[in-house]
Amino acid sequence: MALGNVLNTAITGLAVTQTSLGTVAQNITNANTVGYTRRITSQSEVATGTQMLGVRSTGVQRMLDILLQRQLNTETGGAGYTSTLKTYHAALDQLFGAPGGASSLDTIVNDLTTKLQTLVNDPSSYSNRSQTLTAATNLAQSINSIATSIQGMRQDIESQLSTKIGRANQLLSTVQTLNARIVGKDPGQVAGELDQRDAAITELSSLLDIKVTDNSDGGVSIFTNSGVQLFNGSTAAKLAFDTHSNIGAGQAYSTDPSQRGVGTITVQSDTGSPVDLIANNSIRSGELAALIQMRDVTLPQAQAQLDGLAAAMAQAVSNRSPASSAVTSGGASGFDIDIAGLKSGNTITVNYTDALGASRRVTLVRVEDASQLPLPATATADTGDQVVGVSFGADPFDPATAAAAIQSALSAQGIGLTVSNPTGTTLRVLDDGSGTGVASVSASITNTALTGSGAEFPLFVDLETGKPFTGSFDGGSQLTGFAQRIGVNPALTADPSKLVLMDGSTGSGDKTRPQLILDRLTKTSYAFSPDTGIGGGGLHYSGTIVDFAQRVVEMQGAAKQSADSLDQGQQVILSSIQSRYQEAAGVNVDTEMSNLIQLQNAYAANARVISAVKEMMDLLMNM
Amino acid sequence: MISTNYLTSSLTAQSSGDLFRTMRAEFDDLQRQLATNQVATSYGNLGSGRTTSLDLHAKLASLAGYQSNIASAQLRLKMMDTSLTSIAKMTTDARTTLTSTDYNAGSGTLTSGQAIFESNLKTMIDALNTDVGGRYLFSGRTTDVKPVETYEHIMNGDGASAGVKTLVDERTRADRGTLDPATSRYSGRLTVSGAGTMPVTLTAQGTYGFGLVGVTTNGTTTNASGSPASLSVDFPTQPSEGQPYNLTLSLPDGTQETITLVARANPVAGAGDGSFAIGATPAETADNFRAALLTGIDKEARTSLAAASSIKASGDFFAGSSSVQPNRVLPLGATPETATSYGAPAASNPPATVVWYKGDDTSTSARMTATAQIGDQQSVATGAQANEEALRRAFTYFSATAAIDVGPGDSFSGGRYAALAERVTDQLASADGVQTVENISVELADASATLATAKDRLTTTQSVWQDTLGGIEQPSTEELAARILDLQTRMQASYQTTSILSKLTLTNYL
Question: Is B500 part of the contact surface with chain A (CB cutoff 8 Å)?
Fold first, then answer.
């Protein structure tokens, strides 16, 4: 081998060492760059037959564990989901106040019961009356403000979603741009683009859970986990979000676009029609999934809890249950009940045994607006009853017409009961005399006047309409968003004496009415809708109002705690994946330094070869 | 919210940064716990104790309510007890007051005994009008209504409506009947058969005056019969010397008086001393008996009957209330002496009679008009009404005494006074089976004792619950200190290690 060859070989060595040094320098300088993966320079021997021609650099490679990267993406999405949930649950929990704190919901409820106890003890005291009213007002306002905050959070989520969707679109278009540069190139030449594309995909997976498939040409395709294509390898799909403003309790998600009161995420599909990603449950993880869950499930449930609480508080004090009396007519037996003053939304409940001997319960709900019929089974909180809506015109209603309407509504449901109006405002419910049997008939009728109709009175009213809460379904459910509208009856604020005085002859020291309010809040059991999630298993919760308020606070606290621990677990998983990923793909300055020393040595050795060649050349020359 | 991208190179710094941040946050939280003495700032952070915490907060709030009920009920009971004690003392004293202060017509219109009773009446009105913070204690459920009218209105009426004095006057006149102009005698509304008739027949009016019970002589009793009641005294044979005839009369206030007439061969001169002469024939004896009887009736009419009328009228006055009209001599405004009807006048505005008690009178039990709830199930009745039986009785006798006319210039005044004193002494303070002022006091004292027991029990329960709540909501200082120390050590170690690690880089050794 000629000396010239040796020189050339040494020079290729110098060149490769320089390239490697360049990589080391690149690694060290980018040690703290987000999304940078460690590079190494690969090299191979150059030889032809017996001739050894030196070494050459075969390119720069990214040190990357594909499997770890996938996991990292998945867990990043999971962490985005849990941390978002955690944040919103913490905010929701905060709304209910600190344990024993003056502003916590349970303290405010307890305060009202304490004030009522004092009022029962001395009903004539002006200060007791006004303190009770203040406590009731505080409670109503506290419910208002919590409910308003809940809807505020939903509105905030709506704009968050809009921003996040915008970001997702940006990321998809970044992927599209970078992908175009990468496709068909040697990976060694487009390492930077690859890094950036990976970063974009990881960020995208923190927003929503995606599936990434590598194409043979170096490009990628992105799908949602449900298979909707977001990026087909050349063109990014456009995600769209129709932001709704003025989100309130009445605005809910629905797969039916005409019923939908909140925004949804759509993507233009290949077939041309937009696909609703929320409707087909495409987004199951990531920040978007958490935001959607809060907006459409958790927060509406919290709203339902407050609505249920507000409605129960209002109806507990305002609704009377007229006594029923047993009656027989011919062979049939049943009950008479006075339904005078039955308001739209008020109920008549009949417990009966059907022809097969099974115990059943039917709840008749008065509706003025016949277009609302038939009512859904969720119209009453009770899950054990059959709901039958009945319309018999506006107030004042004709009892005979009412009885006929109830009869035909029951017949339409195949319920074998006979309903008539024997006299006045009396409603008579009879069995068929043989198979069926009526066990009891009860009614819940809202008193709308402060005085003159007994101990029950509208302590709380719907502040928007100024009318008592009757649970009406006319023009939409009065229950929905009642938490925002509940307030102490302004007529009562103007004249607190009506907290005690039921009519002209009530003594001002008569405790009947205060005792009634107290007992209805603390002792009487009510059914709370399964929408509130308190009962569990799709059943209604049965308990006192004070109990229910406690359960609401408790449930939100527990939800917060479990969101916390979920997030904690997820962060642990994420950290461990991150550190493993870090080990594989991160820059370790020490490693680089030792490489540097090796390279320095290699460079020096190569240089030494050149200098040896030179010396040998000199020897030759001086011969 | 975490939106950072967890990517590669900067992870080391980030994770140790996270670690420091977490430890720092934990440290801050421990510091907050130490400062606020509260484990958590929300129910979410409280952990599994939140159910107990919520429950205990509700329980403690209701206990606080019960405690305040007890405090205010105890104050009320104390005030009521003060009032009732003074009334009870007056009723007890009254028994001796009238007997110890002899009738002394004096120069004024009232005897000293009457003056004491008048002042008793005023004291009693004040005592029953006691209020605590604007809440009247003896007004039943209408605690904002001053229960008892003023003394002036009760006694003298308010111009439009009649007071006790008018009622006493009307009833007294209606009971004693018209003065016989010939004999200057009152009949007490008894009709006695004319002279020369045998047997001597007495007939009561029925509504007013004396009622007839029976006559006893020689151990044989003849009871009055018929309606209106009548009674005959026959002399089929001459009575023996010293044979007594005891005629028992009933009076409007429910008491009975007996006129004893003794047959004498030679009666002491002057009729009215309870004897009659045995005549030559039974018919003559009957006439003598009749004459003595009329004199006896007149005397009783002027003394015991007047006292009884006064008590009856007072009693009826105080039986009235805002919903009950007191009975009056009807028709209103007619001459009472000949009246035959007694009852509640038609409702009118203003009412015919002053309504002395304006409070609540619709409850069956005065005690139940106010209750203090002192537990979920337990409540204590602490109500009282000024028109309770014992108090009405005191009012009746006090006002009857104050209203009766025992002025000078009437030789029967002393007898009337004595008859009244006898009744007051007998019946004011106690009678079998009726409520006394002491009964009310005892009932209220029972309530007060129950309250005191309940208070002790509540205080104990409260402290137990508070301890439990403290265990849930408040951190243990020792544990907290230990945790802070531990955390501090860990943080120092971490900082130290990080610092050492940062120096341990190959860069420094090249």
Answer: no
- A563 to chain B, closest Cα gap in Å: 10
- Give the chain A residue nearest B507 (alpha carbons): A593
Q: CA of A50, closest CA in chain B: separation in Å?
A: 40
Looking at residue B103, what is its pLDDT? Answer: 66
CA-to-CA separations, B411 to B101, B270, B302, in angstroms, rounded: 18, 16, 10
Q: How far apart are CA A125 and CA A562, in angstroms?
A: 47
pLDDT, tens digit, for every residue of A137-161?
999 999 999 999 999 999 999 999 9
DSSP string, A95-144: HT-STT-TTSHHHHHHHHHHHHHHHHH-TT-HHHHHHHHHHHHHHHHHHH
Task: Output b/e per residue, B452-470; b: 16+ Cβ within 10 A.
Answer: eebbeebeeebeebeebbe
Tell me the backbone φ, ψ of residue B112, rounded to 5 degrees. Answer: -65, -35
Q: Which of A155, A338, A161 is nearest to A247 (CA)?
A: A155
Cα gap B151→B138, rounded to integer Å: 17
Of A34, A100, A575, the CB nearest to B57: A100
Closest alpha carbon to A190 in A22, A59, A64: A59
pLDDT at B9 over 50: no
Q: Which residues of A touch B380 (CB under 8 A)?
A: none
Is pLDDT above 70 for A66?
yes
Residues of A in contact with B55 (CB under 8 A): 550
Mean pLDDT within B43-60: 86
Give the pLDDT confidence of B116-144 residue by residue, as tens digits: 888 889 999 999 999 888 888 998 888 88
Q: How far apart are CA B476 and CA B38, in angstroms?
A: 10
Read off the pLDDT of each residue in A405-425 and give the average, rounded to a whole number: 89
What pLDDT is attached to residue A271?
Answer: 66
CA–CA gap between residue A133 and residue A317 (Å, rounded): 14
Q: How far is CA A622 from CA A1, A432, A615, A617, A619, in A?
A: 21, 135, 10, 9, 5
Q: How many CB atoms lie within 10 A of CB A101?
A: 17
Q: Crossing angle of helices B389-403/B437-473, nearest 10°? A: 140
> Would you call B134 an interface residue with chain A, using a CB distance cutoff of 8 Å?
yes
SS3 B358: coil
Among residues B485, B508, B164, B492, which one has the least CA distance to residue B354?
A: B164
- Give A511's contacts in chain B (Cβ within 8 Å): 141, 370-371
What is the complex's ipTM, to 2 decimals?
0.73
A21 touching B, CB under 8 A? no
Q: How far is CA B246 from CA A439, B202, B235, B274, in A?
A: 71, 14, 14, 10
CA A528 remoteness from chain centre: 21
Q: What is the pLDDT of residues A370-386, one digit of tens each?
A: 888 888 888 888 888 89
CB A220 within 8 A of CB A233: yes
pTM for the predicted model, two decimal places = 0.81
According to DSSP, the residues that pair with A275 across neighbouring strands are A267
| pLDDT given for residue B160 in this prediction | 87
State yes or no: pLDDT of B433 exceeds 70: yes
Torsion sign over Cα A300, A306, A309, A314:
negative
Burial of A214 (0-12, 13-18, 19+ CB in 10 A): exposed
